[in-house]
Amino acid sequence: MPGVLRKLVVVAAVDGLILHANGGSRFTGGSNNEASSIRIDYKTNKITALPASAPEAFEGRDVLEAYGLVGLLSVASYSFLVSVTQRQQVAQIQGHPVYAVTNVAIIPTSSQEDATRAITQARKEVSQGDPNLDPESDEEDVPDNITDGAPTEIGSAPTSPSRETFHARGISVSSIAEDVIGKRLRFGRFAANWLSRKNLGLPRPGALEPEVPESPFDDTPRMSTDGSEAGDAATTVAVVPQEFGSQSDINQPGSDQAAELLPKLLRYTKLLLASHNFFFAYDYDLTRSYNAQGPWSGHLPLHKTVDPLYFWNKHLMSAFIDSDAHGFVLPLLQGFVGQREFTVAVPEKKESDGSPKEELAEARIVGESQDAEAIETESPKQNFLLTLISRRSVKRPGVRYLRRGVDDEGNTANTVETEQILSVPDWDPSHNAYSYLQVRGSIPLYFSQSPYAFKPIPVLHHSAETNQLAFERHFRELSRRYGKIQAVSLIDKHAGELKVGEQYERYADVFNKAGGIDGQPLRLEWFDFHNECRGMKFENVSRLVDRLKETLDQFGYTTVKDGTSSHKQVGIVRTNCMDCLDRTGVAQCAFGQWALERQLQNEGIYIDLSKDSSTQWFNTLWADNGDAISKQYSSTAALKGDYTRTRKRDYRGALNDLGLTLSRYYNNIVNDYFSQACIDYLLGNVSTHVFDEFAMKLQTSDPGISVQKIRQNAIDTSCKIVISSPDEEFLGGWTMLTPRQPNTLRTLPFEESVLLLTDAAVYSCRFDWETDKVLSFERIDHRSISRIHYGTYITSILTDTQANERSNVGLVIAYRDGDENALRVNTRSLQTSVRPAALEATSNNGEWDLVSWLRGTKRATTRFVAFKSMPLSTPGASPRLGPTGIATVRELDQVRSICQDIERAMLAGAGQNVDSVSVVEQSDIISLADAKKRTGILEYLVYDIKKMVWA
Q1: Any idea of the CA torsion for 851, 857, 862, 865, to the nearest 10 degrees?
Q2: CA geometry: angle at 601 spanning 595 and 604, to 5°?
Q3: Which residues does the annotated region (Disordered) include (predicted)?
Q4: What is the DSSP letter of 943?
Q5: Cβ atoms within 10 A of the Cβ of 388, count?
Q6: Distance between CA atoms of 8 and 28, rounded to whole angstroms?
Q7: pLDDT digits (tens, 9 = 90+) for 324-380
Q8: Where are the domains of the chain?
Q9: Tens digit of pLDDT for each residue in 814-868?
Q10: What CATH number labels 707-935?
Q11: Which residue in 42, 50, 44 sits closest to 9, CA to CA?
Q12: CB 244 within 8 A of CB 80
């Protein structure tokens, strides 16, 4: 049967990292007879298979034993092999062990020296996690049914203000650490502890020894010439290689910021993967439901059978898949896997005229199997196994508040499929096995909530047509996977959540009036959870189950016996609250309880789980599931967990929830932005440009929502509103950045606005991107334009990207204020026209150095509007590169083209020919030198404080 190599060793050889199956066995699961060893070349990262006889040089080398691979992480010119070094068995399904990842090693592939140090340190970590393991001895093969390594409970990833600088191979730099501690790092004494060797793996300033090259993030003891240890040791995440890629790599956009943030990325990657939230099995498909499991045919490898919707590390494994190293590809599932065995004591039938239900009414669940001895020997009993599997979708992944609602493809945030499987402990195929599926996911509308508010009010986005399209895409895909759909919304029917709930109902009604899904209507039940369960009476969620009993009975569950399904679940309950966490967890537990009771009834056992005090394990299993999903989305355990576990709610649970709420609030405003960038990058949804964006804004964009589509919609909307005359011909539209205050060049922050060009005027439109409305616009008649100026436009030098003279360009349109121009503000009232007095162009902050090119116009009547070009490459996509690695379309070319379009329209309107004196002039708007002069100490300080907190 095809499968994955269960155990392998990682060896740092001279010419590359060698991955070798432990014991020298060969893997034969692929289409070819794959070798049990492969090599990752240090220079090219090319993966090649080794002959069966190789390698012979393992003896005497530092080797790291791994239980599987997560993949190959590449950032700029760095590459790291991520391998599973510790695991814990959490379940067994049909004889196949299921493991949770509890620790990983991140090994650089830059050189043998760096790889060897990382392997040594990883072995030390493993030995510290398991005191019985000697890192210097060869560990015997560990049986699959025991725990490998000590579990490590890790919450959210800590932040670090590291600012390492990228260097290409060939540049004479002894180590990155010198740049970190040197003049390029502007952090003060407040950050001294953050930048200590203990926290970052950096050598202390006095301990720098350029003559002894050292990987700057390595904390393993280094040996001096006399054999003694040099420096002190501390625990770090990984070793960053001292030498990187070729010289051409440094010219790739985004590589500088990615390299600076690399230590933090590696830390987060390790914490994320070792957080007990990733699961795998070597020869069982965790990504598909029990009923969807099928015999693997021929030589099909495991990674080709899994559902890509839940194959978390597919992008990281792409290098191995492309190299046909199928035996090394271990699919990971993010979510939860838990399992409990329990025993049911069933009294013998009474000799009475009662119904079967009355005869068996005294049936009781004793608890988990270890409590079975408490059952009277004369009472018949049955043993069962309950397995809970939650599968978190890789579509629209991320953290709370930064991933809300729906994207353009209909994927919703925090989408999780949860399966509850009831079986006998030995999985005897002659006995019935039951599977019940549920789904949670964010409300399928475009909306957001501010992470900075303690109780943020949801804000809806985009037009009705755009929302309806995404709404329908979501439910059609859900129906394709599961059949009929019962949507359950648990949000409040008052205050901030009411508006979203009403829109949810509205779009569902429109959808159903249009025919629904293949003629089947979408069912939506709005259960006001907080109102129905007020007074901490969460047991009232049973009212929701009672309302949906008919639907639940119709949808049913899947029954499998002897490999065939005697009954299939034909529909699914899709549950949501605002976060799809706390209220959703309580409701899904109730639906799971309903399913378990019905499945036990099918076995002839009638029992009310809500009234049975021995079913604590069932509540605990669901509470553990809720905590796992909550930690993956909000970095804290789920609220209302005390009720889910104990069926009781008191003040202690409320106080605990308050602490978790405060912790979530802290993560919302501090940790989540970088965490989101890392998640998107690890899943392959964005390029390294996401780190450029984070360095500039300390925030990230949503790659699931098309920025180009939103901007084009803004241009179209602006055209319909601001161009009032049917005689004006629309010539072009662009979205650009503009200072917040008019008639200025550098009023921060810049806002994204819309620039429109017609045959009669230029329009500068300020746009509300949340509501898709024009807030105000200024119409500039062509006849009033006196000069168009374009060139370098640098507004900040805090990051390398912001100080780049080639990409930071813009244009300024100077014009004479007069009656032919107009300024209108949308006041949402009858009066919208505003005619302010002509604003005098002042010389504050030196922003009227441009007077020289205004050529004699009167300062009292001259105004100007400034625009800065948007980056041509978004964080989620690679730039358009030519064969030399340089962008084929530059921002300066784009700005020049806009200026020329405006000039042509002016000349055509005035009846002049192209030989007339040009009004377009190129020179710096704000040069790099000027920007440096204008950047004060306070601006540096504010940015550094922000970076210490966020980055």
Answers
A1: -60
A2: 155
A3: 123-166, 203-229
A4: H
A5: 22
A6: 15
A7: 898 899 999 999 999 999 988 776 654 444 444 444 444 566 555 444 444 445 567
A8: 8-154+274-328, 176-236+248-266, 333-670, 707-935
A9: 998 876 787 888 766 666 655 554 444 443 443 434 444 444 444 447 889 999 9
A10: 2.30.29.30
A11: 50
A12: no
Tokens of 539: 């047991």
Asked if residue 299 lies in contact with residue 30, where contact means CB atoms within 8 angstroms, the answer is: yes
**What type of residue sits at position 217?**
F
In whole angstroms, how large is the CA radius of gyration of the chain?
32
**What pTM, to 2 d.p., does this model score?**
0.74
Q: One-letter amino acid identity for 86?
A: Q
DSSP β-bridge partners for residue 779:
763, 822
Cβ contact 555:573 at 8 Å: yes
Kindly report the three-state secondary structure assignment for every residue of 739-787.
Answer: CCCCCCCCCCCCEEEEEEEECCEEEEEEEECCCCEEEEEEEEEHHHEEE
| 3-state SS, residue 576 | strand
Residues in CB range of 214: below 8 A, 6 or more apart: 175, 203, 222, 242
> 531 phi and psi, to 5 degrees?
-75, -45
Cβ(901)–Cβ(764) below 8 Å: no
The C-alpha atoms of residue 409 and residue 424 are separated, in whole angstroms, by: 40
Structure tokens at 50: 């080794």
Are the beta carbons of 638 and 627 closer than 8 angstroms? yes
User: Distance (Å, rounded) from C-alpha 925 to C-alpha 580?
Assistant: 49
Q: How far apart are alpha carbons 292 and 476 in whole angstroms?
A: 20
Tokens of 116: 């060897």
Residue bearing tokens 């377009």: 920
Q: What stretches of 514-615 show up as alpha helix (H) in DSSP?
A: 529-532, 542-547, 549-555, 582-602
Q: Which two tokens stand for residue 3?
A: 């499968």
Contact 849, 797 (CB under 8 A): no
